[in-house]
Please model this.
Amino acid sequence: MTSSAYYAARPAPVRWHPALARSAPVLVIVLALVAIWYVAAVLMNLQLVRSAFEREETPYTVADLLAGTLNAERPLLPAPHQIVKTFAEDVFDWPVTSPRSLVYHSWVTLSATLLGFFLGAAFGILLAVLIVHARTLEKSLLPWIICSQMVPILAVAPIVIVVLGSIGLRGLLPKAIISAYLCFFPVTIGVVKGLTSPDPIQRDLMRTWSATPAQIFWKLRWPSAVPFLFASLKVSITISLIGAIVAELPTGAQAGIGARLLAGSYYGQTVQIWAALLAASLLSVGLIGLVSFFERWVAQLMGARA
Amino acid sequence: MIAVLRRAVLLAAALGMTAALALPLAGQPVSGLSARPLLLLMFLPAAALYASAAFVAPARSIVPTFAGVVLGCTATLILLRDGGVAGNAAWGFWSPVLANWAAACLGVAALGTLKPKDKTAAHAVDWAIPLLFGAFVLYLWEVAVRGFGVPAVLLPAPSVIAVRFFASLVMLWQDFFQTFILGVLSGYVIGCGAGFLVAVIAHRYTFLGRGLLPIGNFVSALPIVGIAPIMVMWFGFDWPSKAAVVVVITFFPMLVNTLAGLDAAGQIERDLMRSYGAGQGQTLRKLYLPAAMPFIFNALKINSTLAFIGAIVAEFFGTPTQGIGFRISIEAGRMALDVVWAEIALAAIAGMAFYGIVALAERATTFWHPSYRM
Model:
């Protein structure tokens, strides 16, 4: 057998468009997950619906049962279309200032998230700059910063809110402080890494130009820290959102996504919980997108090639 | 310049210690230092030690500085036992505290400049600096709370928290068992195990892996703790619902990291395994899994923190009458902040120990990795 015959015997590899090759597996798995979700919804709600029919002593068919499981008012697991429907109603059917509007609750949580994020990022950057410039601080403070992240900080959230409340701070700021506490850490670690990333050769070059410490910082260290900073900011903005949601739980807050979760769990409104979760997920994705947008913008300003 | 500044600060610290003799100790009349011979025997030597530290090189000033700090701190703590001083302290009390603070800062800074040749000594210095720093923060907390008389509903002193901690060991153990052993640990094992298994399967079937990786990355960025109320609804108030939250939270970081780790094996090594005629299982065991270990441990470390947070959040949505999160929210509502802080100390110790054990296991398993080679 010649080599050309060997090659001819193999089927030509199927070539897909790269975009299709990338998105096809994701699409298939998402569809599979949605299908599994529907099956799970039918199975989990079956008992509930059947006992409801039996209580009313009405004759029912399998089709009735199926329809019931997918449209139950307080299902154990709501079907995806129910969640989307409730989400759309909560978002579009009420004016944005109404406490029944999901936009209103999202805004309450979002404002705490953003304030906490800015506080946390500013604190994180400040800490990183101090740590890079003082060896003693690096040795004494850094281990404690790392330890602070192994402590389940959320355990402290209720007393932070109680203590701040007793000295007259209520509403936005206590939540933002908890968010800030949760999200400063990735920023500190990332910026410390970034500020120390310039090569010794580059620092030596700055020295031969007799650059002042301030010049070294602004012209060498800070620009090389920016990519690290944005990578950290993307992590911390999600953490900040989690912090804001969780901070609403122990205080029995009246507004916010956390309050929505709490109310849903008190009154057994499962669909409402899922709709609030959907809102939180969309917020999270949107915030990361926003940070990525700024990242590209800043990279362009700094002269990166597109 | 810096040497002059250092000398000036140390001399000022010595002056601050002796100033306690002249200034009033408290806002109300209490007997002065000259009437307390024991305290005098501590204040004056501390001042002398600070003054002597000012005139030697930083490396040699460490011992006298810290001897002075220990004497000075003990003396101020003894002084606080006087009911007239506690809650009412004046400059005669605060000037030695500030002096101790300044001296301790310089002492730690001097310790930081040490570069011992011996490896054990270098290690000891690396541990000593943060520990001394932490101890001094505790001292300042204690002195500030008791000196200013901060009400216990705002911030209890560390000594009060420690007393409460050891007085309620039984309750703390029950809470720890409920939250940590039952909720966190079981959920952590199941969640990490499931994430690992799914990742191994997804690595075997490339199509699955290419679909799961973007989804896993996406879900990892979502606020998953929000499923806590749903899990409480499904699994009831007791620990299974907490474990379920932990399972969901820990699953995705493990999946994403393991998938990335299994891809970390180089092409040359894969070719080598093929040329040896190694089977799927052998290649997995001898090449892919060892190469993935650093990534897997990264996920285990991330998850050790996430798991604890998830369990505590789930307790906000309903618990049996024990558990760390439950106790904290109940006692915070009753303004019993010493119990709350004792629980926080427990959570902190448990969290650090958990992380530490995972980190030790990582060292034992991935000792070959470049990041551990010194």
Notes: The mean pLDDT of chain A is 81.
